Amino acid sequence: MLKTKLQNKKNIWLLLFVCVGILASLRMFWQIGGDYFTFLDEYPTFDVAAGFAHSGKFYFWDFHRQVLSNDSYTRAWPHTLLLAGWFQMFGINVVAGKTLSGVFGVLFVLSLFYITRKLYDDMYISCLSCLLVMTNSTVITVFRQIRMYSLWLLVMVWLIYFLFRMMTAEPRVREPLSGGAFAGVRNHIVCWWQKNLNFSVWYILLSLLFLVLSYFVHVNTLAIGVGIIAFYLYLLAVKRERRYVSALFVVTGVTLLVALALLLLPHYSGTVDELDLWRVVTENVSLREEVNIRYWNWTEDFFHNVQFFWFSLVCFVTALVIRCVKKKDEKQTLAFDFTVYLFLATGSSLVCFLYLLKRYYQARYILYIAPMLAVLAAWGIVECCGVLTEICGRYQQRLAKYILPFVSVCCVLVLGISMWQQYIEVYANEEICYHRQVYEIVKKDGEAHLDDGTIPIVAFDFRNYYAVQVLPDYAVANLDRENDADIWMNFAKEYPEGYLMLESAKINGFPEVTKRFVQDYSERVTGEGLDSYNIETVRYHFLDPVKGDGKEMESDVIIAYECVDSPEGMRLRIRLDTRKLDSGVRIVFLNFVAEDAGQEPVKRSYQLRLPEQPDQEVYLYEVIVGDVHGDALREEGIMLYYNDGTVVEYESQDM
Predict the structure, then answer these.
(1) How many other C-beta atoms lie within 10 A of the C-beta of residue 420?
(2) Are strands 455-460 and 474-479 parallel, antiparallel or unpaired?
(3) How far apart (Å, rounded) are the C-alpha atoms in residues 28 and 12?
(4) Cα separation of 273 and 259, whole Å?
(5) Under DSSP, is residue 564 helix (H, G, I), strand (E, B) or coil?
(6) 307, containing H or E segment
(7) How many Å apart are CA 150 and CA 143, to the nearest integer?
(8) H helices of 458-510, where?
């Protein structure tokens, strides 16, 4: 390994650490609160964490099948708990959620810097490794989304490190105790451990802790197992220490016992088919005849510069071959072992994803190899520069010392240009951000239909941040999915006309009353199921009653309506006979279809709010219906909403 004069100066390392932290912070947090694209899968992550922050419980909802579930949605629960706690400290909003992912991203980059500093002690490798992961737009995007992958990558980089240190840490010899009641037993156990399994107990515990944590964040943690086993066999063959042989027998025996238990216990308990384990494997693993081209394209384009990828690959292979043909005492170092470890872990993971695994085709599922690829590329470049320096030094000493700095500067320039070229992919882009566009539509619609200028919005927490950027004057009520119906109903008492906004893709997770109101009995402003906006926005009209004008109604009619001309426009008069309603009804929903001046169909929806203690008589409701033909106004169904949440469709009769 080529050494520099500055490597042993702690102040230089500290300065580099601070500079890397500042660059990572700029990369993760730049315009984090702007018009940033919201990925569809961010919604359930946000929903579950917000719900847990509100109630302390996980949702009983299946986000994959969009149905109510008897099991709570605990996927990636470590991330959910952290995000819920973060929400409680900084508020439930989109900026807070993305900021936590950004914090994980900065810690991820700084962790990579620390680990490479610890194992390689080379500032060029540390800086290039961090720059390479910050160059990749897929990595940065993950740390700017409200998803569990941000925590997963941070945990994985430490899991990879602790597993390596567990297998390679130098054996420690403890002095025997001279006294105490259990000194003899303790000394016997320690003596046996040091003789047969002299691994660091501290690193074993840390590895198990991070393995469990990483597994519960994402199951793809297990894909690295093949590479870990391959590296262990490498250590067994190269180092030939007794502890590796003993551990091989212990791990093999425990694995066989666990596998036997998984196969036999369900059979005797009668709860699970004994073939379930095999079925899980066959459903997720299958040997492909062709390479999964999506993963290979992502790997080849890892640095968003194909030429740089192949340059790094050639440097790495060249450096690895040179190291392998060197003398044994020159290549058996901790840094070289770590390089082999990363190579085996990366290679095995790529083989699994390219040829074996049947699921998880997106790049984020294999993204944990990103720091390993970056370190391997940086190591290969620095090692090749070291070889060139040695060769050139025999002929020109002055020129030799500039090879590594020159190549490093060129790499920084290439990566910097690449980073600038993919700026749009991870930062503000109004063309793919529909939040602002939806609020612009609401603003325009509100100015046309609302009198006082204030735009009332009933929305889930995810939407509020963008309202303030567009709307000059608005009032908002936040839904929490637990008390949604009461929240927007109470809000409507204060603001009889306003807007209700929900995510289209997750609308089935809302109470039936809200879902029905949005889809069937309101005036749609944006959204039609899952569309380009992905947001259902509807305008509601809650009408307060006045006592009837004494006009008689037919005995078999619960609702009657008529249109009359007025100076303000066409006025719709609705009469409701509460004597024919059950006592538990609190809202009557009406949906009309009319024709405007251009003979185009127009929907008009109104919600008749009953008095809290209505008298048994007829109540009158009036509303301006706008530029429509009164004789073309026809009613399309009546829905009765009861206090207990029951919804009943009432078959009405025309006047």
Answers:
(1) 9
(2) parallel
(3) 24
(4) 15
(5) strand
(6) helix 306-325
(7) 5
(8) 464-470, 484-494
Q: Tens digit of pLDDT for each residue in 149-165?
A: 999 999 999 999 999 99
Instruction: Tell me how far apart the alpha carbons of residues 19 and 17 are, in angstroms, rounded to a whole number.
Output: 6
Tell how strand 601-609 and strand 535-543 pair up: parallel
Helix 149-168 × helix 94-120 angle, to 10°: 20
Specify the pTM. 0.71
Which DSSP helix (H) or strand (E) runs through 438? helix 434-449
Tens of pLDDT along 518-543? 777 778 888 776 556 678 888 888 88
Overall residue count recorded for the chain in this entry: 655
Name the residue among 325, 351, 350, 347 with its Cα closest to residue 336.
325
Q: Which residues contact 18 (CB under 8 A, 6 or more apart)?
A: none
Q: Are strands 61-62 and 474-479 parallel, antiparallel or unpaired?
A: unpaired
Write out the H or E segment, with its range, that includes residue 635.
Answer: strand 634-642
Q: With bands split at pLDDT 50, 70 and 90, how would you rate the model's confidence at 173? A: low
- Residue 66 in tokens: 């969009």
For 345-467, strand residue ranges (E) read: 455-460
Sign of the torsion formed by the C-alpha atoms of 115, 119, 125 and 129: negative
Angle in degrees, CA 633, 636, 638, rounded to 5? 120
Instruction: Give the other-Cβ count within 10 Å of 60's Cβ.
Output: 11
- Tokens 């890397």, located at residue: 20
DSSP 8-state class, residue 91: -
**Residue 105 contacts residue 28 (beta carbons within 8 Å):** yes
Q: Which residues contact 537 (CB under 8 A, 6 or more apart)?
A: 438, 441, 442, 499, 500, 501, 524, 525, 526, 527
In angstroms, the CA 334 to CA 196 distance is 22
Backbone angles phi, psi at 640, to 5 degrees: -105, 125
Tokens encoding 546: 């006045």
User: What distance in Å separates the CA atoms of residue 650 and residue 234, rounded to the nearest whole number?
Assistant: 75
Q: What are the structure tokens assigned to 573, written together? A: 């008069």
Count of other CB atoms within 10 angstroms of residue 241: 13
> How crowded is the C-beta side of 315, counted as CA atoms within 13 Å?
24
